[in-house]
Structure to design on (226 residues):
């Protein structure tokens, strides 16, 4: 069965609104989760590392005030795209690092379309 | 900065052919190299390699790592149309276990 879930799987929103994406670890606790973004025909780019109970670590070029990450529990991290614009339309994928064996498991992804 | 380079970027073959996909890397603190297959959705895990020279095999797919030359190959024998996908190579390095991905190889298997 699925190890990591993401919700929603697909979302369409209007420009200027905010969208929250949830990533849940279903089988184990995860102190660390990762958020990736993938544009069409491109590879996955790491956006940020989400750490339970502390601030996220953002990759160079990713605006932390625009992409708000909250890792409030050992099984849930959320990514909020604030004031979304059409150029934020992308496939957002989270991965969860198991605290037990350090392997990473990907969620099914969320396709965001901003109109 | 960690770097992963995959080649070729795209490949078109006929069913039954054998293909070899390449991945070279530069990483500060190597932990493992991973191969994923991506179709329409999120990547699905294929292999994780940590030691040089030990082949990992799953059905028609196999992979091996060379830590001295800093590369890995993914072989697919007797290809089928269902093997058509983007194959991603990623390196796990650094103190926080983050993955750095290559651009992927788009494999198209024609009947």
């Amino acid at each position: 069965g699925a190890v990591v879930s993401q919700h929603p799987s697909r979302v369409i929103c209007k420009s200027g609104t905010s969208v929250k994406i949830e990533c849940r670890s279903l089988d184990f606790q995860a102190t660390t989760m990762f958020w990736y973004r993938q544009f069409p025909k491109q590879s996955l780019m790491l956006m940020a590392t989400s750490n339970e109970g502390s601030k996220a670590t953002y990759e160079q070029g990713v605006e932390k005030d625009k992409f708000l990450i909250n890792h409030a529990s050992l099984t849930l991290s959320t990514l909020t795209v604030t004031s979304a614009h059409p150029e934020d339309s992308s496939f957002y994928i989270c991965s969860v690092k198991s605290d037990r064996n350090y392997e990473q498991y990907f969620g099914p992804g969320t396709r965001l379309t901003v109109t | 900065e960690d770097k992963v380079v995959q080649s070729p970027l795209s490949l078109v073959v006929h069913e039954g052919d054998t293909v070899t996909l390449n991945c070279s890397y530069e990483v500060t603190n190597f932990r493992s190299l991973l191969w994923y297959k991506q179709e329409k959705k999120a990547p699905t895990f294929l292999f994780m390699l940590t030691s040089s020279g030990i082949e990992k095999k799953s059905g028609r797919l196999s992979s091996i790592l060379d830590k001295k030359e800093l590369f890995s190959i993914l072989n697919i024998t007797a290809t089928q149309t269902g093997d058509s996908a983007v194959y991603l190579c990623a390196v796990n390095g650094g103190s926080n276990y983050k993955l750095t991905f290559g651009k992927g190889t788009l494999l198209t298997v024609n009947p």
About this structure: The mean pLDDT of chain B is 93.
